[in-house]
Amino acid sequence: MLAVGVSSRRKEGPEKLCGVAKYIDDYHLPGCLFGVTLRSSIPHGTIKNIRFDPKFPWDDCVIARAADIPGQNYVDLIEHDQPLLAEERILHAMEPILLIGHPVRATAYQALEHIEVDYQESEPVLSMEDSIALRQVLYRSDNVFKRILIEKGDTGAGMAKSDFIVEGEYRVPSQEQAYIENNGVAAWEEDDGTLVIMGSMQCPYYVHKAMKPLFPRREEKIRIIQTTTGGGFGGKEEYPNMIGGHAALLAIKSGRPVKMIYDRHEDMLATTKRHPARIRHRTGVRRDGTLFAQEIEIVMDGGAYVTLSPVVLSRGAIHASGPYQCPNVRILAKSMATNNPPSGAFRGFGAPQTLFAAELHMEKIAATLGIDSLALRRRNLFRQGSVTATGQVLRESVGASEVLERAVQRAKYVERRKECKQWNRRKDRTSWRGVGLSVVFHGAGFTGAGEVHLASRAGLSLTREGEIRVEAASTEIGQGTSSMLAQIVAETLGVPYQWIQIDTPDTARVPNSGPTVASRTCMVVGSLLQRAALRLKTAVAELQGTFPHTRAGLRTAARKLANGKPAVSFIEEYRQPDEIQWDEEKYKGDAYGVYSYAAMVVELEINKLTYEVRIRRLTTAQDIGKAINPVLVEGQIMGGTAQALGYALLENVIFQNGVMQNAQFTNYIIPTTLDTPPMSVELVEKPYSRGPFGAKGVGELPFDVPAPAVAAAVFHATGLFIPELPLLPERISRAKRDQTAR
Amino acid sequence: MRGDPSTMEVLRPKAAREAVRLLARHPEAIPLAGGTDFMVSWNAGQRNGKTILDLSSIKEWARIRSVKDGLRIGTLVNHWQLQNHATVQREFPLLVDACATIGGVQIQIRGTLGGNIANASPAGDTFPPLAVYQALVHTVSPGGGRTISFADIFTGVKKTSLGPSELIESIEIPVLPSRPRRQMFWKVGTRAASAISKTVAAGLLWVKKDGSVRELRFALGSMAPTVRRLRHVEAFIVGKKPAGKVLDQACALLEKDVAPIDDIRSTAAYRLEVSKGLLRSFLDPSYRG
Amino acid sequence: MIRLRVNGETRLHKGEPFKRLIDVLREDFHLTGTKEGCGEGECGACTVLVDREPVNSCLIPVCQVAGRRIETVESLGKPDSLNVLQDAFLSEGGTQCGICTPGFLMTAWAYVRQGGRDDETSIRKALAGNLCRCTGYQQIVSSVIKAVRERNRTVRERNKIRGSRPRPLRKRAK
Predict the structure, then answer these.
(1) Domain B182-283: CATH superfamily, name plus number
(2) What integer best gives the mean pLDDT of chain A?
(3) What are the tens digits of pLDDT across the range C122-168?
């Protein structure tokens, strides 16, 4: 292969490296207003009065409130419960109330200081437990955004036949995506009435869909354009619907372009975060370690509005039993409404939470039974032909044991475990050392019938000048979309990578290839492009026999094909493979077309005086089907690993009365170069027959695997089983003191 | 970015005397050195409409000079210069260690020693070393200058004993009377780099021939509103051998000189446990927690 | 009026003396390559070089760098002629979303130019004031290692050539 499997240089790399690539705040919009948002300071209550300081020059400001929305006041997502601007009812701190636009950025912010809001406060519900106890009714009658039940076999009978039952409760916190480019958009109305929104986003068509109910007009009169985006990780999956709506409202009201760029503090305070979760396991095992029955209860904190909670819960629930065979499984999951800011999408989307619990629980089972942790994994791990908790038969591309064995072998896991034990025996050591292991799986694409509902469309256009353009709404947000899609097309056509261009994700230009989420872009959209490329190749072959090898030849062929038109398009639509069968009611069947797999071994040491954790070595093997671009794939794995190390050891969203207290980088701690270890990454390729060149998904998988491996290593190092994150030194120190006291 | 430059008045003296004169005439002016602290709150929109006394052009204040029995460090000397200065490296290695842990390189190059002291954060990383080196702060003011012992420079969180028109001109560090048997700087931060400290310690120990303590100087930052010398511990341990019950008592006495709190970075319990551990391992290097 | 040297050219700032250096660069001089990520001096995305040293331009009022030499990412190269460091970032995967890239490039360029060593520990220390959320840093470190080695090789070759060139004959005055 000439283009696939090659570490081609990033398509948009040179522009980014020279400071030439334009992010939204780099655009100069003459005559624009700068938009800011007045937000609630209380988590629950009603607005009684809003008072504007008469001494402030309000004439220079444009003010927009809910009443100014020409259409309906909601931000489109799964449900329509979230208003664009609060009218009376406040359900979370930082909820947007009104917008101000002013030509000078600093003055716009000053205006906010000259507004007083009088509230009638109600008692807030700030924890999952308080929500379940119905301290206040926030949503429907029971505060439950979504309930999911997955059942397989008979867990009652299974528990009765087990030799041991091991229980555990695991808690994981909120987490901030912390993309280095804050949320930002610009909006304006053209003379012909087209509403244009440009900005940092993952899903231009989500924004497009959300603008219609707010600003009713024909579809073609809404145009959404993605600008170079400085990181997303899910934090720009649905949030741009909100900020886009805000900028658009100010633009329509003022008749001027509006730029709305958050600063770090506001972005952390107001935008979505990872769902916190509490996961309880009750596992029946045979003496030899065979899993016989799993009862799992999951509760997530969805925050004040539904947003994407049902889908996060879904993915979390489906992955909750881990990559293991078990004949009897019962998973009961629910997502609760609280007065915390709405939770949303973040890389992994429910799976990092439940897989942390599943994997750490395996450690607990191993310790309880006195069985080696690796042997326990080997005994139960998925193989080809295994049946999942939803009754899915894993027909192909099951790299679970390959990744486990490769990671364990390269990390010298068994040897290192022994060495650490010997190290820890000596009292004169300044640290404890430990080695931990985890193995995970992650479904690629949307759950169940999701891809069918998306009905993604993508393809190629060949201009009459001979330019080949990828036409897809899939966005480059750093993960390598542009390069990877270009490589798939180049390989299929048999032409150089450099010949393929990527059209801007602009809803006026490209079809809806679905959102850039769920580890779907390569597998789903890449397949569509592969098919489109084949059709293009066939079309040219029908004209002149072979596909041209020179640009001049391509120009000639293109002119013929275009036949007077500026370009000719080859657009493909998603077709679900027949073998995928999913029952949404019973939550049974093929939850995903295929799963990717990863295993990791983490070696760490803990300072005996300060309890600070330092990762000494990190080894991972990941089965992603096929690495279209190995350097980019490794980059995804190492980047996701670093984020998950932050989740495991450093990142702690501190809420008080529903407000994040550490909403800046000074006190919300993400890893630096000195906090991340060198990483040894091995790519395993177990091709998937439905993926382009065998590729599955890689974006989220790397996030699922590090945190439980770290917790397992801490357990190995200290004998402290700490079923919570982050494993801050304070937490380890407290656990040690409790252990010593007992 | 919420700062509005059009609301700011900037005074830019070229020499020390001019700075003093301007501050006397504009007592509301905020002296600005490297700006690594001030500009953060300015970016947050909290300092609009203020008058700034920009000291950064006063070249005489950016020098390091050897003086009799010590080093005189101009108030505008930055932490990068400081850690790379040969005499500082030779005579005051704890200060070098501290400078290297302040933020990233970008912050070390801009942050100044005098600016940091004037800012008086309870978590200043250079303060425990300066406390155990028993530095002196030289000031200038319209009424003349004075010398303030480092032990007296801080009066509370972000509060100094400087008068309204008084500026720090330099920091003098006397060379140590003799080489200490042991010295230590240790910062426990929120992560491995660019972090605010949870606790930060500096220690110097002189030991007599019989193994008993001749002198201990130990200071902790982030453990109280200001940096604290452990006076009770230092007084107690003189003449004693740092072992067994003496160590237990010394660590217990630590609590008398500090007042750690729970905050968004850490807990009082953790801070206390770790500080005691650091003190103990300094006095007894075989200690393992 | 404040005079600066930016990327080798003399530029005049006629506006507010307290305007931040980052805003003068981005808004007045239209050099939008330098980015703002946090406004607190934590992320380093705004890093530029002042007299060859890396600083956070979001924390500097322009009056404090009057007369100084400023270098931004725009001084390193152009998309069709990347410098050795930019090229290394491209081949090693040192840039993903790219928002932190200009800041990293400036900090790393100062390091490379000052003769920084090609070992991982020194490089990680030098870059500890720049945050990246995409890469996990390893490919950034590899990029800098590659650039240091490339540069050392180029310098060695240049010296070799200089060393072997015959010295010019000097005409003796009669």
Answers:
(1) CO dehydrogenase flavoprotein, C-terminal domain (3.30.390.50)
(2) 97
(3) 999 999 999 999 999 999 999 999 999 999 999 899 988 887 656 66
**B106/C61 touch (CB, cutoff 8 Å), yes or no:** no
Q: What percent of chain B has pLDDT over 90?
A: 97
Write the CATH number of the domain with boundaries A277-447+586-741. Answer: 3.30.365.10
Tokens linked to A348: 């992994």
A53 has pLDDT over 70: yes
pLDDT digits (tens, 9 = 90+) for A211-246: 999 999 999 999 999 999 999 999 999 999 999 999
Is the domain spanning A31-122+183-261 CATH 2.60.120.10? The answer is no
For B232-267, write each residue's pLDDT tens digit. Answer: 999 999 999 999 999 999 999 999 999 999 999 999
* B267: closest CA of chain A, how far (Å): 7
Q: Which residues of B touch A661 (CB under 8 A)?
A: 264
Q: Where are the domains of chain B?
A: 5-53, 60-174, 182-283
User: A106 to chain B, minimum CA–CA distance in Å?
Assistant: 5
Q: Point out the residue among C37, C74, C137 whose CB comes nearest to the CB of A673.
A: C137
Return the pLDDT at C171: 53
Asked if CATH classification 3.30.365.10 holds for the domain at A13-21+450-573, the reply, yes or no, is yes
What ipTM does this complex have?
0.97
- Cβ separation B45–A109 shorter than 8 A: yes
CA distance C123 to C111: 8
Nearest to B273 among A113, A672, A733 (CB): A733
Chains in contact with B, where contact requires at least 3 CB pairs less than 8 Å apart: A, C
Which chain A residue has the Cα nearest residue C131? A672
Beta carbons of A650 and B190 less than 8 Å apart: yes
DSSP-derived letter for residue C78 is B
Residue with the larger pLDDT of the pair A697 and C173: A697
Of the candidates A446, A444, A393, the residue with the CA atom closest to the CA atom of residue A695: A444
Cβ–Cβ under 8 Å, residues A488 and A530:
yes
Q: Is C46 on the interface with A (CB under 8 A)?
A: no
Among A17, A233, A620, the strongest candidate for a mutation testing the C interface, having the largest count of C CBs within 10 A, is A17
Per-residue pLDDT reduced to its tens digit, A585-629: 999 999 999 999 999 999 999 999 999 999 999 999 999 999 999
Q: Is the model's pLDDT at C174 over the cut of 90?
A: no
Q: Do B264 and A654 touch (CB under 8 A)?
A: yes
CATH code of the domain made up of B60-174: 3.30.465.10
Burial environment of residue A185 by CB neighbours within 10 A (0 to 12, 13 to 18, 19 or more): buried
Does the structure show a pLDDT above 90 at A28?
A: yes
CA nearest to A250, candidates A363, A84, A125: A84
